[in-house]
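SAMPLE LOG
Freezer: B-3
Tube label: C17
Construct: single chain, 309 aa
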Amino acid sequence: MRDKTCAIIGVPVGTGAGQNGCQMGPEAYRTANLAETLEAIGVTVEDKGNVDPEPVPDIDHELNVKNLELAVGWTAALERAAFNLLESGVFPIFAGGDHSLAMGTIAGAARYAQSQNRQLFLLWLDAHPDFHRLDTTDSGNVHGTPVAYVTGQPGFDEYFPALTNPLKLQNICMMGIRSVDSAEQRMLIEKGVAVYDMRRIDEQGVVRPLMDFLEKVKAANGMLHISLDVDFLEPSIAPAVGTTVPGGATYREAHLIMEILHESGLATSLDLVELNPFLDHAGRTAHLMVDLTASLMGKTVMDRPTKSF
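STRUCTURE (predicted):
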């Protein structure tokens, strides 16, 4: 992917999360030299600035959902942005922002895949499956609903933009899961979504599940969207997230996943989500997420000089 142009687009959305701060994520990535780090390994980078949500009139509803109008506006804007960026031939990096942004980025990538007569696949790297419907969320935070929305689960059509190409449930691989609400658990089991929780990763490692999934993507000539949440990582190495869950992926597990993804050549778009700079320690999490992005784009172990934290 080093010969492909990457487009960074900031998504300063924090209204889908339960804690303030994610809206500052895009500038934290810029401050942590995301563009410069990629350019240093030979990647052409274009910073497209930040996207803004589309205006949406007040929505009359009785749902336990916070900031619904803003979520709808962000989804519409990001669906269009993802489609247009992919159509222009670049590799989009959506620097967020909370995970509600994936409602738009995945929907737009799926619409573009459909226009190319291809399937979209999703690698979901997260402590949480985010498979709540609007009527099952207890917190009311929309960042817990993206996967349900993009796969066409019931209850979204009345409020959110209609999906032109719902993501197939069998095209999803979730890794790092370790915090699942009971409603989500029932739905995930019922729908047969491939979930590799941390227990399975402890037993099997990350390589075999990932390689099996990538074989499916390759066999289908599919496009691959990667959605990387900070809380996928062990909190001791990535503290800047409002939803910390102990027992996450280690530094090397995360880099190995990204290195394998690079070698596969299958990735076509990326979300970087849930970075809350107000919870970070001297930019440590932001720099780690930037470094993981560099691994996805081709940085190798031999490229890494010794540095102190």
